[in-house]
Every structure is written in structure tokens, then in C-alpha cells.
Amino acid sequence: MTYKIALNFEDGVTRFVDCKSSETVADAAYRQGINIPLDCRDGACGTCKCHTESGNYEMGDYIEDALTEEEASLGYTLTCQMYPKSDCVVSIPASSEVCKIKQTAISTKIREVRQLSDSTFSLIVEGDALDKLHFLPGQYANLQVPGTDQHRAYSFSSMPKDGAVSFLIRNVPNGLMSGFLKNTAAPGAELALAGPLGSFYLREIARPVLMLAGGTGLAPFLAMLDKVVAAGGSPFPLHLIYGVNTDADVVEIDRLEAAAKALPNFTYTVVVVDEASSYPCKGYVTAHMDPANLNDGDVDVYLCGPPPMVEAVAHYLREKNVQTASFHYEKFAAS
Question: FAD-binding FR-type domain: which residues (predicted)?
């Protein structure tokens, strides 16, 4: 059997390698041009110690000086002795540069640009290389603004399908990418993409999940839901609170409805700041974080939104003295 191993480096770069069940993760990475730090290859030095965030594996021989029993129980592994038994996600305590990974651009073409609202564009790009693009749901890519040497970072709003991926892009007044999408972009136009990047991604679902999205921060959650649907669902409840400023800013409800139909354990709430909104939930996201969704702290919280929203949620959890099992967030701001 051959498995996909996601290697997450400390600078946010992610690379996937194919690893046979009969070879170690370190050997598979080296075979594919990625030099995970290691010295002995015999499970004796501990140089290749990493943390496995998800997946099943078996360990070969090693000594306790290299990996203690307590470390092993917490998911730490020695990649020189790690034999995968499923797809895995492994955090590497080194930068991609140290491991000699170069950021490469993928050539794509625009399939479709739609302005979903005054505040949001939908961008779909396609290309042969996208069939081989692997990323964790929630991660982002750098898109080069055509005709410039400038890049902008956007979260994937879908998993790869039929050689295409999508993005939700905020319409920023006088923004470089916004101006291109509004005035110039057309199907067939070339667009360079580099990635995947980022440490914000869906981990293994081991308890209830609360997702908090602000504006175009909805994008990574759409990709996460795609992944959960493709995996056959979740044994634990997933709840999304999607916050926007006005009713006109609400987008992609059809995709949320489709996810709700496909996932019996998934529910969502739309929260609109504008008091004149037709939606029943008004105000800010923190006003609608039901204690049931926090599950007495036994919950994994994922948050993607502008800095004030991230800070408000963190303050709310501290004020309520809620210690969540995990809290993953991604801040974004207009360039």
C-alpha cells in the first residue's frame, strides 16, 4: 500500500509525499527530494523527532533516549522508524528552507469569475497540474496578480475536482487583485498559483467542532466541508457560525445547504451585524456562540476572520473561562 503523508513545516509550507507501507517516512521524503533533519537513521539520536497529528503508523526499533514512552504516547515519532498504515499528517520542527524545499508556481487558467456580492468574488481556476495538487482543507495559496510581481494569499474554498479549485476573494476598494477581477479577468487568462501554505487546516475530528467564519473567512470552511462529505461524514457534530455585515454580504448559502443535506451532523447559523437584517440572528458572532456548541470545552474551535473578530472570540472564551480542547485560527487583512 502507498499512503499520502502531509509534511507541515514550521514556516507554514506543506508538502505531500507518497510513502509505501514498507518504507519509513524519512526514506520516502528523501526519495522525493525532501531532507527531513536526521543523523543516524537507526532510531538512536532523536534528530528526526516529529509530531504526528493524524493517521495510523507503526514504529520500528529505537531507543528511549531518542523517543521516550511519554513522547510516543503524545504522538511524537521518529520519522526514520515510522511506517505508515494510513494517510498521515506530520509536523516537522524545521523550516522548508532548511529541508531544501523550493516554492514552485503552478500555471493555471481562469475558468470562471463571478461577483457574488458587492463584497465578494468567486474565482475558479483550472489546469492540468491541479489534478496533482494536494493540500489540507483550510490551507491557502499565493496567487500572482497578472501583469505585476505582486502576490495575494487566499484560502482554497474547495478541494480539487475535475482539475479545478476555487477561492472566495474580498472586493477591496482600489485593491490590486480586486481591480483585476472586476475589470480585466476573463476565462482563459493565465494565473500563477503557489502553495499550499498555512497551519490552519482541519485536523482529525475526534470531538465536536465549532467553526467561526467572518466574511470571506468562510472559504476554508467550505473546503473543510467538502472533505468531510467526501470522507463519508463525521461521527461528531459540526456547527458553523457565519458572520457578515449586511444581508448582501451573505454568499454560498447553496453550498452550506448542500453540506447540511449531505451531513446529518452539520448545522450552521448566519449572523448579520446590520439590525435591519432579515436573518433572525443579528449582531456579532460571539453573541450567538451557544454553550451547547462549546460542549463544556470539549470542542475543537476553528476561526477564520479579520483580526478584530479573532481577538473578540479569544476575549469571549477567556471571559467565560472556557478552555477548549483546541483553538485554531487564521487572521486576514486587506493588502
Answer: 103-203
Distances 283 to 240, 245, 252 between C-alpha atoms, Å: 16, 9, 20
Q: What angle do CA 229, 153, 119 make, to 5 degrees?
A: 80
Instruction: Kindly state the cell numbers that stand for 151.
Output: 502576490
**Domain chopping of the chain, boundaries:** 2-92, 105-197, 209-331
| DSSP annotation string for 214-253 | EGGGGHHHHHHHHHHHHTT--SS-EEEEEEESSGGG---H
Per-residue pLDDT tens for 169-222? 999 999 999 999 999 999 999 999 998 888 889 998 999 999 999 999 999 999
Q: Band of the pLDDT at 335, cuts 50, 70, 90?
A: low
User: What are the distances in angstroms from CA 229 to CA 217, 255, 295?
Assistant: 20, 12, 23
Give the pTM. Answer: 0.83
If one counts every other C-beta atom within 10 angstroms of the C-beta of residue 23, the result is 17
Q: Which residues of 220-240 are buried (b: 16+ CB within 10 A; e: fewer)?
A: bbbbbbbbbbeeeebeebbbb
**DSSP label at 189?**
-
Identical fold, 2-92 and 209-331: no
According to DSSP, residue 295 is labeled G
Neighbours of 48 (CB within 10 A): 27
209-331 maps to CATH 3.20.20.60: no
Element (H, E) at 139: none
Q: Which superfamily is assigned to 105-197 in CATH? A: Translation factors (2.40.30.10)
Q: Is 175 exposed, middle or buried (0-12, 13-18, 19+ CB in 10 A)?
A: middle
142: nearest Cα among 169, 113, 171, 173: 169
Question: Using an 8 Å Cβ cutoff, are 192 and 141 in contact?
Answer: no
Q: What is the rounded CA–CA span in Å between residue 9 and residue 274?
A: 41
With contact defined as beta carbons under 8 Å apart, do 213 and 221 qualify?
yes
The architecture of the domain spanning 2-92 is Roll (3.10)
φ, ψ at 103 (rounded to 5°) = -75, 120
